[in-house]
Design a protein that fits this description.
This protein is α+β, with helices and mostly antiparallel strands and 64 residues long. The protein has one helix at residues 14-32, and strands at residues 3-9, 40-46, 52-53, 56-57. The strands form 2 sheets. A two-stranded parallel sheet has the order 1-2. Strands 3-4 form a two-stranded antiparallel sheet. Strand 1 (3-9), helix 1 and strand 2 form a beta-alpha-beta unit. The longest helix is centred in the middle third of the chain and has 19 residues, at 14-32.
């Protein structure tokens, strides 16, 4: 059973997450030959104040 973990900063909508897990599942079926029902995707979200890049917390960074 393929299990995929997606680490992300909080803030994406439920609809965005639905589209992401659908796309990942479809890719696993197509590229790995996995059965759709066997593909497990888990989204692990971090608050912006718990994640940093380049020494700056995401909560402190200016918007892109």
């Amino acid at each position: 059973m393929p299990e995929i973990f997606v680490y992300a900063v909080e803030g994406k909508s439920v609809e965005q997450k639905r589209r992401l897990v659908r796309a990942i599942t479809d890719a696993m079926v197509k590229e790995f030959g996995a059965r759709e029902q066997a593909v497990m995707v888990q989204i692990i979200e971090s608050p912006k104040h718990n994640k940093a890049k380049g020494g700056v917390l995401f909560s402190d960074a200016p918007p892109p």
